[in-house]
Write a structure and sequence with these properties.
The chain is mainly α. It is built from 20 helices and no strands. Helix 13 runs antiparallel to helix 14, helix 14 packs antiparallel against helix 15 and helix 15 packs parallel to helix 18. The relative contact order is 0.12.
Length: 443
């Protein structure tokens, strides 16, 4: 029972972290949609999209390897942390060299804020890396308080800069940079991360780096293919429908992000338990029991969020942004499949077979129908393309993961739940007469 107790304790700590940080971010949506135009909001979202694509590539996903090897080999943690730090710094220098590319039309005007974007990238990259270090060192409380402090700093500065001073996009970037720097300072001071960083030693560090890259390099193309399946639609939308339409799509995506309050609360704690328990004899039973509970909460959260979508949209999406609300249920369904795929993905990271992550995500990315569906269905087409991509990735990972760890699932119940949530999605997306009543019955 000890492993379940540890999982529950970590879930409790990460719940405090996730609920507070995600709730703060969630409550900022009305601020952004009220004071920013759809085009300005599109630029801010484009910055997050580009960072999501390029960060794991430029940093070689070294933070994930750092976490995994600290847990697996704690006696050599100083070496892993130091190597990871220098790789992250090198990635930031590469971003500096790539800044002129942001002036390309496909980035929708992001090049006008390239130096602010660079500062955001650096603060975000080191924030993420130091959080990975803290996870490996089991400093869960520190992660929680650093995240809360970072979110509060970002939210308060956003309200001041955007709402009162009218800084618009500039205020958005400065608030994110400020929040990221607050977290970095807390990790360095209270986590003692700086004590593990030493000047590079060619022979020993090179050996450690090669070892870490064997784990992390397959995560890089996985991140790219995942981005292709989930975020490439922003570039299609921008080029085909304009940056304003991309802003509408981005605003609609904020409400489905509440799914992350369910998944990431569990996620961070589960990955630690998965790493720690993987080599034990009852691994399959442990995975099966945890997934049974996890999927139940995810289905309830997805269906309940869909039921509340019209009301939440009227409250959070201001002015023209409200027109995008029928996209939200489709994006919730896409997020649901992505969350399930992510659970099975921990089998690959725990077993250090990260190449399977790359293979499954690449196969899903191949079927992207964004271009075709946008032409036929507009913004809804981009959302349905995400559903298809994530569903394929989930199905492939189920097959591949069961070859490593047998995860028992009640398939008839699972399929019935997927069918009900899918029907609810269609009802809300097309909102016929009495759609609210039908959605409530399905829930």
């Amino acid at each position: 029972m000890g492993k379940y107790k540890n999982l529950l304790v970590n879930i409790g700590l990460f719940t405090l972290n996730t609920v507070s940080t995600k709730l703060i971010t969630f409550l900022l949506v009305p601020l952004y949609t009220y004071f920013l135009t759809t085009a300005q909001y599109g630029v801010t979202d484009m910055s997050l999209t580009v960072a999501g694509l390029i960060t794991p590539v430029l940093t070689l996903s070294i933070g994930d390897a750092t976490t995994r090897y600290i847990i697996d080999d704690p006696n050599d943690k100083k070496q892993y942390i130091s190597v990871g730090f220098w790789v992250t710094l090198f990635g930031c220098l590469l971003m500096l060299l790539l800044l002129p590319l942001l002036n390309l039309p496909i980035f929708g005007g992001l090049g006008n804020y390239e130096w602010l974007y660079l500062a955001y990238f650096v603060s975000s990259a080191f924030n993420a890396y130091l959080a990975n270090v803290a996870r490996g060192l089991n400093q869960i409380k520190l992660i929680t308080w650093a995240s809360i402090a970072s979110s509060l700093a970002s939210a308060s500065s956003a309200g001041l800069l955007i709402g009162l001073l009218g800084w618009k996009v500039e205020g958005y970037f400065v608030s994110l940079i400020f929040g990221g720097l607050i977290a970095v300072v807390l990790y360095l001071i209270f986590g003692g991360s700086w004590e593990y960083v030493a000047l590079p030693s060619k022979e020993r560090d090179w050996r450690v780096l090669k070892k870490m890259l064997l784990y992390s390099v397959p995560l890089m193309p996985n991140a790219i293919f995942w981005w292709v399946g989930t975020s490439v639609n922003r570039f299609f939308i921008t080029s085909m429908l304009g940056i304003g339409a991309s802003g509408l799509f981005a605003a609609a995506s904020k409400i489905p992000n509440v799914m992350n309050m369910v998944s990431s609360t569990f996620w961070q704690a589960w990955s630690l338990s998965a790493f720690q328990e993987f080599k034990k004899t009852d691994t399959g039973k442990f995975y099966s029991n945890v997934f049974a509970v996890f999927r139940t909460f995810c289905f309830l959260a997805a269906s309940g969020l869909m039921l509340l979508t019209p009301w939440l949209a009227s409250l959070l999406l201001q002015k023209k942004f409200y027109d995008s609300w029928p996209i939200i249920p489709i994006l919730i369904l896409a997020f649901l499949f992505n969350v399930f795929a992510g659970f099975y993905g921990t089998v690959f990271t725990a077993s250090m077979k990260t190449r399977h992550l790359m293979t499954s995500t690449a196969a899903a990315a191949v079927i992207v129908l964004t271009w075709l569906l946008i032409r036929v269905m507009g913004l809804q087409g981009a959302a349905w393309a995400m559903v298809g991509s994530n569903l394929v990735m989930y199905a492939i990972r189920v097959v591949m993961a069961n070859q490593i760890v047998k995860i028992n699932v009640n398939r008839p119940l699972m399929l019935a739940n997927i069918l009900l949530v899918s029907v609810q999605t269609c009802v809300l997306a097309w909102h016929p007469t009495a759609y609210t009543l039908v959605s409530a019955v399905l829930f």
